Structure formats: structure tokens, C-alpha cells
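Researcher: I'm preparing a figure for a lab meeting and need a structural model of a single chain. I don't have an experimental structure, so a prediction will have to do for now. The sequence is pasted below. Please return the structure as C-alpha cells so I can convert it later.
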Amino acid sequence: MQIIVNKSFNKEQFAQKRLPIGEYEGCTFIDCDFTGGDLSGLTFIDCSFEGCNLSMTKIQNSAFKTVRFINCKLLGLNFNECNPFLLSLSFDHCPLNLASFYNLKLKGVKFCECDLREADFTESDLTLSSFENCNLERAIFDHTILIKADLRTSFNYSIDPTINKIQKGQYSRNGIAGLLDQYNIEIE
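Model: Understood. Here is the structure written out cell by cell.
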């Protein structure tokens, strides 16, 4: 397997041509287009993706170990298909609508200013996660672990405390209604 270290990829098109199979360590991907492409089986360690479009990209059995996504378009990405071993991600200013994090251990994951409409967090472990100013409209939390999660500045979420673990989580007064949706009560 090819090992690529500390390389920068700028404004490259990987939607049609595949990124060479290998392990990418300390690499930076800037303004690259992976739309609908295939990153399956690749390993990314301490890498960052900045301003890239990875919407609908295949990531089956890809490894993301300490990977940052900054201003990246990640619509419909199935993170649940990637390699869960040492999975460590952070997202800053990213649209992640319809992304799936089903059954992943994402302890300490950080989402900052992200659009997570209709994202699926079913059966995920989001212990100590941070959702800073994120839109969670119609995001799915079903048997999700949100212990000590911080959602104080996020909005539009609906989380049922009877089927999710939310102990010691942090929520704002304005967002507390999102924990009571299932009771069909009016809060003024």
C-alpha cells in the first residue's frame, strides 16, 4: 500500500478519477471535488479537508483517524460505512444534511456551525460531543448516547429523553422544548 505523507492537494477533481489507493498522513485537501466519487478503503490520518465537496462520496471501509472537515459540503455521506477503528472526526462550518452516523462511537466529536438537517445519529455514542450553533432540524436521535453532550447553542432538535441517554447534557432554556416534543405540549 502506498503511503503519502504531508502532501497538499489543491483544486483537484476526484469525482471521476479516483484518489490513488493508500494511506494519507498529514495531508491537506483544499477545494477538491470528490462529488459522488469513491474513497473506499483509503486511510486518512491527521488530515484536513478544506472547502471540499464530498457529497454522496463512497467511503466504505475508509479510515478517518483525527480528520478535520472545514467548510466542506458533506451531503448524504454515510459515515456509518467507514472503518470505525480509531475513528476521530471534527466538522467546522459544514453542511451535513442527510449524513448518517448510525451506530458509530463518536465520543468527543465536535460540530461547529454545521447544518445537520435530517442527519441520522441512531444508536450512536456522542458522549462528550459538542454541537456549537448547529441546525438539527429533523435529525434522528434514537437510542443515542448523549451523555455530557453540549447542545446549548444548537437549535431545531427533537430528542426524546425516554429513549436516549442524555445525562449531564447541556441545553439552553430556549432549546429545552426540543426535549419535550413527544409530549405534545405548548411552551410559552
